[in-house]
Amino acid sequence: MRVTTTITRVTTTTTEPAAGPPALDPPGSSVAAPTVRVAILAVYAVFALVGVQFAAFASRIPQIKALLDLTPGELGVTLLAASAGSVLGLPAAGWLAHRFGATRTVLAAVVLSVVGLIGVGVSAEVLRSRPGVMLALFVAGLGIGVWDVAMNLEGAAVERLAGRSIMPRFHAAFSAGTVASALIGSGLTAWGVGVLPHLAVTSLLVLAVALAATPRFLPAGGEGHGIPDAAEPSRAGLGLRAAWTERRTLLIGLVVLVAAFTEGSANDWLAVAFVDGHGLPAWAGVLAFATFLASMTAGRVAGTTVLDRHGRVPVLRATSGLALVGAGLVVFGGPWLAFVGAALWGLGASLGFPVGMSAAADDPARAAARVSVVSTIGYAAFLVGPPLLGFVGDRVGVLRALLVVGLALVVTFGALPAMRES
Questions:
Q1: First-to-final CA distance of the chain
Q2: Structural domain of 332
Q3: Which residue has the higher pLDDT, 175 or 403?
Q4: Over the chain, what is the mean pLDDT?
Q5: Model's pTM, two decimal places?
Q6: What is the pLDDT of residue 31?
Q7: d(Cα 132, Cα 342) in Å, to the nearest integer?
Q8: Same structural domain for residues 37 and 114?
Q9: Which of 2, 80, 159, 343 lies at 20 to 30 Å from 102 by C-alpha?
Q10: Is the pLDDT of residue 25 over 70?
Q11: 203 and 162 within one domain
């Protein structure tokens, strides 16, 4: 059974909370409610898995740095290989999902990430080869970039059929996966488990779960996930190149770019800012980062109800304001106020990226092209963010460098109306 234009389009938010959540089997849909429920669980699984895979590697970065005897600058350049792979894979990801279906696209991307991360372990721990690590990171990044777009397309498709906001909770599953995997990585490191066995076992477990989850995606994908065939004249202009010229798509991309920068800046620099800027011990810096992650995860879980009740634009204005206040408290407050700021920052950063994916996928016929464009713009934050804040931090300190996050948030307020349900 194909998910095609026979599916009635349902917006992802509602302004009538008293009526309760819409049925999972809306009139005109060719997909039964049990199938949609199973697909929702499968999407939760693949979001959590990419978080597990990402954090398994991230938790071993200090050991990889030591194994290869890298300076901080050399490590930064080495890590950019993963971002480069992701950014290169993003533009083609939507087309791949349309051409081969979300199930096969996600599985192929998982395999790439597995090969890449096992390659990182071999290159770092056995070969002690920095070029080998960079090549493996490029492959892993390519896989994770394609995986990211394909799973967001599948998530947007089941969200439309469910008739209610779910995307933030999918991203909460990603956040939960990162937290769990990071804690496991910390424990394995403390127990002296090597980089290679950790990454190899984690990757193979991720592949096994993905093989079980992806066949439960929506049947066949079809037009609900893909870009129109460029060979069809009547549908010309609906593809990737056309999406790059759409004002609304580019504004959504700007919002996602700032959201990714706001989240990524905390991931990379928050713990360092608490230690270097506030003079706290290392464990307190880790605690501040954990506070941010926990708050962001909670925001994504609770945010679906708020989005359904109030709509995207008012909610994103409020969360962006929270992130702005939170960043200000981190920079200008004392240590205790800075912890409050980390929590507000996490809440504020929780919804921009997932809601941007939903907004880009409002029209199923154009979803793949628009999500590819928005993801490509958003991932630029992971390329530009670390060196930008590092450059500013060298001059004014890491803590003051975080003011750049506040400046970016102020800029994005003007683009938020583009996120309105269409």
A1: 27
A2: 242-422
A3: 403
A4: 82
A5: 0.71
A6: 56
A7: 36
A8: yes
A9: 80
A10: no
A11: yes
